[in-house]
């Protein structure tokens, strides 16, 4: 099928599942690349067209394309489009991670956040610090009546700015993908399990540690941010038990639902 004749409604790609949007978009793209629908050297549909087919936003499609591009499956040519470079599927490990339990996810995220924060404290530039501060200010607290997705997007932007300050290209690419599944996990924790997002003060502590170029302090701050979530999912899943933990833990603030 040529790019010129492509119609968003002409190809029946699987629709992305809401519980794991980036993972589903990645899986759908990988399957169709492996099937030869878009052979090596072919230009794939635009982000907007793929988003319409999969019924996901452009940001979700962009994250999936970034993963495949970093793995050497796709090649993004600025001003020209995205082309297939290989038919191999690199997504198996990432899909396994995204399908893990919430406890496993937050334990893994804690390890990733700690090292990301430590490297950012060691390597950040003045420009990095300004971007992290801007992300912190934009994140703020969860406003009453605000959608969960809007708040989590701002939270992700703050953490992404920290990852970019690590100066580790592989880590940055991994983090960009992982943030997609992190948003899904955080959404499930908030809406399905009554767990609340860590407070702004904890995020301010992380910023100040990076500002001070103190890697040990930054690592502790990153761990503190994820501790309420890892604690919640290491307990009985019974709502009463989770509620009791929330009342005892001062680092967890209740937000409107």
UniProtKB/TrEMBL annotation:
InterPro entries: GntR_C, TF_FadR/GntR_C, Tscrpt_reg_HTH_GntR, WH-like_DNA-bd_sf, WH_DNA-bd_sf
Gene3D superfamilies in UniProt: GntR ligand-binding domain-like (1.20.120.530), Winged helix-like DNA-binding domain superfamily/Winged helix DNA-binding domain (1.10.10.10)
Gene Ontology molecular functions: DNA binding; DNA-binding transcription factor activity
KW Secreted (keyword) present: no
Domain named HTH gntR-type: residues: 19-87
Tagged with keyword Manganese: no
Keywords: DNA-binding, Transcription, Transcription regulation
PANTHER family reported in the protein's UniProt record: REGULATORY PROTEIN GNTR HTH, TRANSCRIPTIONAL REGULATOR, GNTR FAMILY
Protein name in the entry: FadR family transcriptional regulator
Phylogenetic classification of the source organism: Bacteria, Pseudomonadati, Pseudomonadota, Alphaproteobacteria, Acetobacterales
């Amino acid at each position: 099928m040529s790019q010129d004749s492509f119609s968003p409604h002409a190809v029946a790609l699987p629709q992305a599942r809401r519980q794991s949007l980036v993972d589903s978009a990645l899986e759908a793209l990988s399957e169709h690349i492996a099937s030869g629908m878009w052979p090596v050297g072919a230009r794939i549909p635009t982000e907007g067209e793929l988003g319409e087919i999969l019924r996901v936003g452009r940001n979700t499609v962009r994250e999936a394309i970034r993963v495949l591009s970093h793995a050497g499956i796709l090649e993004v040519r600025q001003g020209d489009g995205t082309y297939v470079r290989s038919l191999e599927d690199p997504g198996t490990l990432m899909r396994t991670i995204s399908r893990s339990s919430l406890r496993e996810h937050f334990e893994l995220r804690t390890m990733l956040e700690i090292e990301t924060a430590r490297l950012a404290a060691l390597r950040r530039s003045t420009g990095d610090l300004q971007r992290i501060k801007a992300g912190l200010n934009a994140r703020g607290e969860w406003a009453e009546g605000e959608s969960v997705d809007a708040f989590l997007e701002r939270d992700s932007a703050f953490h992404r700015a920290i990852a970019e300050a690590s100066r580790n290209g592989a880590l940055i690419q991994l983090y960009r993908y992982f943030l997609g599944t992190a948003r899904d996990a955080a959404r499930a924790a908030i809406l399905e399990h009554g767990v609340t997002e860590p407070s702004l003060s904890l995020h301010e502590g992380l910023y100040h540690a990076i500002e001070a170029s103190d890697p040990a302090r930054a690592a502790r701050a990153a761990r503190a941010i994820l501790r309420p979530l890892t604690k919640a999912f290491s307990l009985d899943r019974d709502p009463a038990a989770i509620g009791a933990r929330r009342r005892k833990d001062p680092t967890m603030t209740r937000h409107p639902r």
